[in-house]
């Protein structure tokens, strides 16, 4: 399966159904902090829900339409990063991510997103990568800002978040930005 070594302590590995319990435990332990920005948490209440999620991501990977990789830090699952889908005609994709509460502040997500960006531009030969984040989600918006993405605009009421719509800022990076 897909593995991408970032450094001695961190690697990305394609999520497999055998990781369902670890994924659920990480998500459940961080549920309160994650729920502020992730609308799907209420739909993942059991290990079986996590197993079904992983099965769906493996199907997406097998169809060459993106992936979800676990972020493994010192052998422990710390979060998830992946490509929501790939538009092969436009050679573009969008990155999504989340990190367990205990793993914040270590630079893991910035490093993981940079690895995914490198993979997209160098291995998949994509031209454009997008990251969207809720306007008030400053931690999530800091990732594309650190990685040289350009803020391209705002989508009004882009997502229903439990009891309200939230706007998203859109950040983009194209392959030419990397070569410049």
Protein traits:
8 strands, globular, 35% strand
Cα(first) to Cα(last) distance is: 33 Å
Q: What's the pLDDT, averaged over the residues?
A: 95
Helix content range of the residues, please? 25-40%
Task: Give me the side-by-side strand order of the main sheet.
Answer: 1-2-3-4-5-6-8-7
- Classified by CATH, the class is Alpha Beta
Structural class assignment: alpha+beta
Enter the CATH topology name. Aminopeptidase
Gyration radius, in Å: 16 Å
Low-confidence stretches: none
Give the number of DSSP strands. Answer: 8
- Shape type: globular
Question: How many independent structural domains?
Answer: 1
CATH architectural category = 3-Layer(aba) Sandwich
CATH level-4 homologous superfamily: Gcn5-related N-acetyltransferase (GNAT)
- Residues in β-strands, percent: 35-45%
H and E order: EEHHHEEEHEHEEH
Tell me the major beta sheet.
8 strands, mixed
Q: How many H/I helical runs? A: 6
Describe the protein's architecture and organization.
34% of the residues lie in helices and 35% in strands. The chain has 180 residues and is an alpha+beta fold. It has an 8-stranded mixed beta sheet with strand order 1-2-3-4-5-6-8-7, with helices on both faces. A hairpin with a 2-residue loop joins strand 3 (67-73) and strand 4 (76-87). It starts with a strand and ends with a helix.
């Amino acid at each position: 399966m897909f593995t991408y070594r970032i450094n001695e302590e961190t690697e990305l590995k394609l999520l497999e159904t055998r990781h369902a319990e670890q994924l659920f435990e990480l998500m459940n332990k961080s549920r309160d902090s994650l729920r502020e920005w992730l609308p799907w948490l209420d739909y993942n209440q059991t290990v079986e829900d996590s197993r079904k999620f992983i099965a769906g991501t493996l199907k997406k990977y097998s169809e060459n339409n993106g992936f979800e990789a676990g972020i493994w830090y010192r052998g422990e699952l710390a979060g998830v990063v992946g490509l929501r889908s790939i538009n092969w005609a436009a050679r573009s994709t969008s990155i999504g991510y989340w990190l367990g509460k205990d793993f914040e502040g270590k630079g893991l997500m910035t490093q993981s997103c940079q690895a995914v960006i490198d993979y997209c531009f160098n291995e998949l030969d994509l031209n454009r990568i997008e990251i969207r984040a809720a306007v008030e989600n400053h931690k999530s918006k800091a990732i594309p800002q650190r990685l040289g993405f350009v803020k391209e605009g705002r989508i009004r009421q882009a997502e229903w978040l439990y009891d309200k719509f939230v706007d998203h800022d859109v950040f983009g990076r194209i392959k030419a930005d990397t070569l410049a």
